[in-house]
Amino acid sequence: MKQMLNNKLKRSVLYTVIGLSAAYAGLSYVGGDVASAQDVQNANVGTSIVGLPDFTPIVNQTENAVVNIRTMENISNRSHGYDPYGGDPSELFRFFFGPDFMPPRATPQPRHRGNGQPERSVPRGVGSGFIISDDGYIITNNHVISGASEILVTLNNGKEHTAKVIGSDQRTDIALLKIDSDEKLPTLKIGDSDSLKKGQWVLAIGSPFGLDSTVTSGIVSAINRDTGEYLPFIQTDVAVNPGNSGGPLINLNGEVVGVNSQIISQSGGFMGISLSIPIDDAMQVVEQLKENGKVTRGRIGVQIGEVAGEVAKALGLENDSGALVSNVEQGGPADKAGIQAGDVIIGFDGSEIKKWSDLPRIVGQTKPDTESMIEVWRRGKKQNLKITVGAVPSSPGEELAASKTEADKSAKADRLGLVVGNLSQETMTKLRIKGGVKITEVDGPGQAAGLRVDDIILAVNDQDIKDVKQFEETVGKLSKDKAAALLIRRANLTQWVPVTPSK
C-alpha cells in the first residue's frame, strides 16, 4: 500500500511539472496529456483563448522618433538673489512646476548678464516628445516647456540638441519645438484618433522619472473623456508617470493616436488612469503653431450649461443633449445672431451638440470671421440662425492683457525693472499684512535678482510700502550706485532681496 501511494505521489508531481512546463510553452495541461490552446478551446464551450500581441516590431519601428526633453531655468545665485531653499531649489520647483521636475544631472554653472548680476542655470523638469518631420519638428506638452530658459532634446541615439519653441498653446497643452540636425531624423506616423475604440491595445513611450525610451502598454479605457478641460481626452490604463508628459500614445499599426498629458491620481503616481490628447485635435493646433506661432480660436459670446433631463422634457426635447444658454454677451456674435438666454443650442455648422462641453470645442476650432449656421431649440421649435464667429485670445495671459485698462497698458517698468499694482483689501487681510504692492511685470535688474510676477513687495530698505504711489516715489529716490534691499513675500516665505537700480 505504501509503495502504491509513493507511485501516485510521484505521478502527481510529474504531472504538475509537465503542466507548468506546458503552460510556459504556451500549452495547457488537460487530463494528464499536453494539449494545445485550440484543444482547450474546443474542450471548453464558450471559452475563448486569445494570444497576447508581440509589441517588439512596433517598438523597433517607433522608439527612435521619441525624444527625452530636459528644461533649464535661470535663477540668481544664492548670495545675490532670492533663494529661500539654501541653494537647493528642487523642492521649490516641484511645488511650482509639478512632479515632472527631476534632480540636477550635473552641477549648474553660474552665468552673468550684461548688467553684472550673476545667475545660474538649474534643471527645471523632464518630459518627453516625438518627432513628426525629418527636419526636426517635435510635439510635446506645453506644461513640459512652459517657463524654461533652455530646452535640451536628447535623441534615442544619445545625441543632444538645443530646441527652440515654435509656439505653444496652454488651453490644449500642446507645444511645437524645432531642432536643427545635419542628418535626416526618424519620424512617427500620424494616426486617426477618431477611429479609436474601447479595448484597443495601445503603447506609451517616454521618459518616466527621466528613464528615457521606456515602453508601457495597456488598452483604451474610454474615449471622449470629459474632464472639464478644453478637449475631450483618450483614457487608457497604460502606465504613465511624471516624465511621460508629451510622449506619444501609439496604436498597433505604429501610428500616434494621442499625446500623453495627464494622470488621475491620489498619490501623484500611476493609478491606472492616464489621459491623452487626441492626435487629431493636437495636429490642428500644431498646424496653426507652425504657421503663426500661436492658436486663434473662435467664440460666439455665450455662457452655457448642461440640459437637465427634467428641463429637456419640459421644453419638448427628445433627449437632454445640447447646451443651455444662460447668458448672452451684449453686442457679441451670439447677440447679433439673435440667440437668447434660455435657448438650447443643439447644432453648430452641421455638427450635433451632444453635451454642453461640445460647443466650446467645436466653436473654438472654427476660424474667426467665418459665417456659420447655428441650430437652436426655442419655444418647442428648431430654428436655424446665421452667426459670424468672433475671435478669442489664445491664452489666459492674452485675455488678461486684452482686459487691461489704458492706464495699465501705459505703465512702464521702473529703474528696478518692475511694474507693480495695488493689493486688494481681501488679499491684505488674508496675508495679514497692512500694505505692499504686487509685481505684475518684471524685467532687467529685478528679473536678474530672482524676482517674479505675483511677488509682493512689503518694504524697500527701511521704508514700509503702502501702495503703488509710495513705491514709485521711493524707487525714484534710490541711489544709482547702491543696491536696494526689497522685502519680498512669496507664498508663505518672506526674504530680503538686493536689487541694483539701472542707471
Looking at this protein, list some descriptive labels.
single chain, Thrombin, subunit H, six-stranded antiparallel barrel, 30 strands, 503 residues, six-stranded antiparallel beta barrel, 4 domains
Q: Could you please describe the fold and organization of this structure?
A:
With 503 residues, this protein is of the alpha+beta class. It has 14 helices and 30 strands. β4 and β5 form a beta hairpin. It starts with a helix and ends with a strand.
By CATH, the topology of the largest domain is Thrombin, subunit H
Largest sheet: 6 strands, antiparallel, barrel
CATH class of the largest domain: Mainly Beta
The structure class reads: alpha+beta
- General form: globular
Query: What's the β-strand tally?
Result: 30
Query: Low-confidence runs (pLDDT<50, min 5 residues)?
Result: 8-48, 78-116, 394-410
- The tally of helices reads 14
Q: From the 3D coordinates, which CATH architecture of the largest domain would you assign?
A: Beta Barrel
Query: Which strand order do you get reading across the main beta sheet?
Result: 3-5-6-9-8-7
The amount of beta strand, in percent, is 25-35%
Instruction: Give the count of structural domains.
Output: 4
Rounded Rg: 30 Å
Distance between the termini: 107 Å
Q: Determine the mean pLDDT.
A: 80
User: What portion of residues is helical?
Assistant: 10-25%
